[in-house]
Amino acid sequence: MKRINIKGNHFVLHPSGVVFWEETKTLLLADVHLGKVAHFRKNGIAVPRKAEGAFYQKITTLLEAFEVKRFLFLGDLFHSFKNNEWLLFSAWVQRQKAAMLLVEGNHDVIPATQFEQLGITVVDHWEEDAFYFSHYPTTSEDRFVFCGHLHPGVRLKGKGLQQLKMPCFFQSPQQLILPAFGAFTGLHILSPKEEDRVFVTTGKEVMEI
Amino acid sequence: MTTVRQWFAAQGWRAQAFQKECWKAYGEGKNGMLHAPTGSGKTYALWGGILQEALKIKKHPSGVQALWITPLRALAVEIQQATQRMTTDLHPDFKVALRTGDTSQSERAKQKRKPSFGLVTTPESLHVQLSTKEHQKNFQYLKVIVVDEWHELLGTKRGVQMELAIAYLRCFLPHVKVWGISATLGNKDLAREILLGPIENYVTVNAQIKKKIKVKSILPKNMESFPWRGHLGMHLLPQVLKLVQKNTTTLIFTNTRAQCEIWFHRLLEADPNLAGSIAMHHGSIDKKIRLWVEEALREENLKVVVCTSSLDLGVDFSPVENCIQIGSPKGVGRFIQRAGRSGHRPKAGSTIHFLPTHAMELIESVALQRGIEEQQIEDRIPFINSYDVLLQFLMTLAVGSGFQPKTLFPIIQKTFCFQTLNEERWQWLLNFLVHGSQSLEHYDEYKKVTVLEDGTLKVVNKGIAMRHRLSMGTIVSDATLKIRYQKGGYLGSVEEWFVAKLNPGDVFTFSGRNLELIRMQNMEVIVRKSKSKKSRIPAWMGGRMSFSAHLSDLLKKALFEDRNQTTPEFKALAPVFYQQQRESIIPKPNQFLIERFETKEGFHTVFYPFEGYAIHEAMASLMAYRISLLSPITFSMSFNDYGFELLSDQPFSKEEFLDNGLLTHEYLHEDLEKSINVSEMARRRFRDIAVISGLVFQGFPNKPIKSKHLQSGAQLFYDVFKDYEPDNLLYLQALEETFDHGMEHGRMTQVFENIAAQEIVWRDCSQPTPFSFPLITDRIRAKLSSESVEDRIKKMYLQLEKAGQ
To answer: CB contact, 8 Å: B582 with chain A?
Structure first.
């Protein structure tokens, strides 16, 4: 885990790929892509179902680690149209006490009303304190941006021509991009600039490069 | 009525012994295998027999009687023309039709209405025909299946496709005859057994045609300037140009499409007079252009054609006088095949020029010459337990008339590929198709194959059936985009990842032209001609060929045989050998050489087994793994056909390495399994498996957006299986294939047993040696590490910071 300070607030970068905002007890998750496995399976492509179940296991561990008052999903919560995964997800939502907020992403094709029936607030973007939450990377005049969408990763080089591709939290001066939380998602390799900070996650540890 | 013999006489030909032998055996109702080189008259050897038998029968039913399978579409056209010619003369009512991926819808409909006597097709098209509901009816009068160029199919998954199709057709056509035509192979008997199946009633016919093949190396005037590394061989351009000008027609064989583009470009640049009489031929160039090139070659309108393996096969080009091979052909069989492209008339001799792209390849030239002298031709290793191909085949039957698992199982078991398939794995495959897993789970909406009331497995969902039909086949390539002029006219196709790197306005070279990218639209790359001199050459992903076992034996021998010392190649190599011996040694047959030196990149340890790329790749992983057991260390590895290199940021000690006997053949399999688990070999293998088995859908033609929600990379599947379903048969297949084909496991054991009998020579060198040079400059690398990811990242972090200062 890594604790960073942005505009006087404290954020914990967790190896699972989430960010915990301590001041508001909010858990930020990007690109969960729930239902992706189910969608593939419905179309005759046999992705192991366990890959989807991983979401619930991971989130249970997180709820033990943090005192979560609110979930803030940074888009692409659901990969595709409704399928049975939706039923499992609804059942999970109903068991949660924390509030839920969804910033819509490009994959979220399920109508907002359906999310709202579950008690999830759906917004195009969200502003709070000095922060701006969006699915797509963007800029805000005076606020710091948290976003997802890219599934960021970096390529590391070492002596002996070693190479490694790892998912990461990608921080530029006014923005932090979260890695994808979902199991069946890919990586998009970014090249950091001088002023960027890169926090690689191995699943066990978060390390700043 | 004319007989086949009379027809031969009327053409002014004399039937050769092997042709007569085939006609006779065919008349006796035998199955068989004919070994004959291209251009020897092998087509008529079989078609003659087929027609002869047909002529004896008065009344013919309306249906296909003879099926002729060829590996290439271009070849299919040739065969159709040749067989039709003979047929028209002997039985004017009979037609031979052509059915490939290029056949139009209307032509297909016509074939359905009025089936012809003969049908020339490809393995893929045959499977498409098996995916129709009426296939049993359509093939009910089938008498013979001929599989042409079997050596090209054997050892590939298309070969497995043929095995399955034949076994399946045989089950409802018990009397169908099967014949194969193949070039000479190392493992002839196995090749026959795989194609014909476990039957008694067969003959093997050998065409006794020996061609004289002369090999000449192209040597520079001055060896001092000969590069130690490289793969282009451009320094020998003047010599090539001279050869081109001297001959009427020259074929230049390159190993990759990018090499082909570059050579074309540079030849034209060096001699602008060639414009109009120079052409290029490779697999990505549009079919129309390729056909035009082939036609022009035949009519002697071209002076030189730069090509890849796309011109290896079939198609007769009698006018070709001269062949040039750029870089290593990787095997004796392939080299002979290419040499055979010149002087393509029976009994005419062939000459092939070998152009070494770096110094080490000169030794190879000598080895190849010895191989040809001794007629040492490679084996082709067949695939076994290719579950991906079987799953595809089961889907093919399921989208057609459906299948009964109980009846089909014994048929599948009769094939060579699936002879060890057991009940349990068969059930796994069926579960995979029906449930998408091995256990039924709540809420699961998996939908692919449905079990009907009578137990038939069938696809009922139209979308799934259509996706399957579009993705049938076992040749996997990266997503390609068609290249089109703005004003119209297709030039060919290029892989998506190359175009992704270009911006509008960028210029690249394709098919010998400089093209400016205007935009991408609907899976097409729209371009216009450009006058710009600067341009990029597209790279195509393709398998990297490895030395065959034969060639590596030949190579090792070539280094020491006394008679080679006086060859022009070895004389030319003298300065290289001198430099090698000053720093290190030239290993003798009883020596195993290891070199160690340091550069700014780190510590290089180079091993020289001379066993070919594939073996070295596995050996490198294995050695790296064993060394890393001694202490945590991370290696990056490179390999070529001569040896492999382990590069690390810290040295491992010579004494520790030698004292621990890390070159032992004990625990070979166990260690390999552990070392390749962390390597990339299986992952690469999995890519094809994912596509063939239908996990990765490559999208509808011209409809890139709609299927996007269903597209995902094979890499992602590999990771998900590894993490969540490690007993998945397709995942296991990737590992098994890596052992059998990637590393040729049997050969590997042999290699280590040989090393046990050798003296190990470790040399600490002050600088890189000539032998090591191609290795240490190779940028395509794999890695192996025993350090934890976290530790490695910490080191990398240090490195990055240094680079930033």
So the answer is: no
In tens digits, chain A (209 residues) has pLDDT values of 899 999 999 999 999 999 999 999 999 999 999 988 888 888 888 888 888 888 999 999 999 999 999 999 999 998 877 788 898 899 999 999 999 999 998 888 888 899 999 999 999 999 999 999 999 999 888 899 999 999 999 888 765 556 678 899 999 999 999 999 988 888 888 888 888 999 999 888 898 88
Cβ atoms B269, B286 nearer than 8 A: no
Give B500 to chain A, closest Cα distance, Å: 14
Asked if A46 has any chain B CB less than 8 Å from its own CB, the reply is yes
Does any CB of chain B come closer than 8 Å to the CB of residue A201? no
Query: What is the distance between the alpha carbons of residues B550 and B372, in angstroms, rounded to a whole number?
Result: 11
**B317 within 8 A of B297, measured Cβ to Cβ:** yes
Backbone angles phi, psi at B684, to 5 degrees: -65, -40
Are A44 and B464 within 8 A, CB to CB? yes
pTM of the entire predicted model: 0.77
CA distance B263 to B281: 12
DSSP string, B52-108: HHHHT-S---SS--EEEE-S-HHHHHHHHHHHHHHHHHH-TT--EEEESTT--HHHH
Tokens of B708: 């996007």
Alpha-carbon span B207 to B184, nearest angstrom: 10
The answer to whether the CB of B131 falls within 8 A of the CB of B472 is: yes
**Other beta carbons less than 10 A from residue A177's beta carbon:** 23
* ipTM surpassing 0.85: no
CA distance A100 to chain B (A): 24
Cβ atoms A190, A152 nearer than 8 A: yes
Q: Which helix (H) or strand (E) holds B794?
A: helix B789-804
In angstroms, what CA-CA distances link B544 with B395, B612, B636, B684? 31, 11, 19, 12
Mapping DSSP onto H, E and C, the string for B366-402 reads: HHHHHHHHCCCCCCCCCCCCCHHHHHHHHHHHHHCCC
Residue of A nearest to B796 (CA): A158
Contacts of B624 in chain A (CB under 8 A): none
Number of helices (H), then strands (E), belonging to chain A: the values are 4, 16
> Mutual orientation of helices B387-399 and B423-434 as an angle, nearest 10°?
50
Minimum Cα–Cα distance from B730: chain A residue: A46
What is the C-alpha radius of gyration for chain A, rounded to an integer number of angstroms? Answer: 17
Whether A185 and chain B come into contact, CB under 8 Å, resolves to yes
Give Cα separations from B585 to B588, B595, B754 (angstroms): 9, 9, 19
**Residues in chain B within 8 Å Cβ distance of A51:** 720, 723-724
Task: Return the SS3 of A101.
Answer: strand
Answer whether B727 touches A (CB < 8 Å): no
Which residue carries 């290439």 as its tokens?
A: B72
Three-state SS string over B311-350 comes to: HCCCCCCCCCCEEEEECCCCCHHHHHHHHCCCCCCCCCCE
